[in-house]
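Researcher: Go.
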Amino acid sequence: EVQLAESGGGLVQPGGSLRLSCAASGFTFSSYVMSWVRQAPGKGLEWVSHINYDGGRTFYADALRGRCTISRDNAKNTVNLQIDSLKPEDTAVYYCHVVVAENGHYKHYWGQGTQVTVSS
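Model: Structure:
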């Protein structure tokens, strides 16, 4: 069973930093692209970043490029998201996401999310 568990969210002042983590299990972690997405209050899901299977390529949404670093540890089955210079508009629930091939189909998985609130 695929499981994703996010942690590291919280309340932070504008300009602060947070490091989000996602612990994955139930699939061959090192074979899959891992992503972070977020959902702000009253809005839809927004892609934030993703990292390829070996960590060699990373991609970021324009809204976070230059403030955000995604990384992964394939030995520990974890993917992390460091966000610096946080802004109030970064307030959202952040989810870890993976698309896993199962029995000839591709299935999307998300964790339970971790709340990030940026406010003074």
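Model: The first strand starts at residue 3 and ends at 7.
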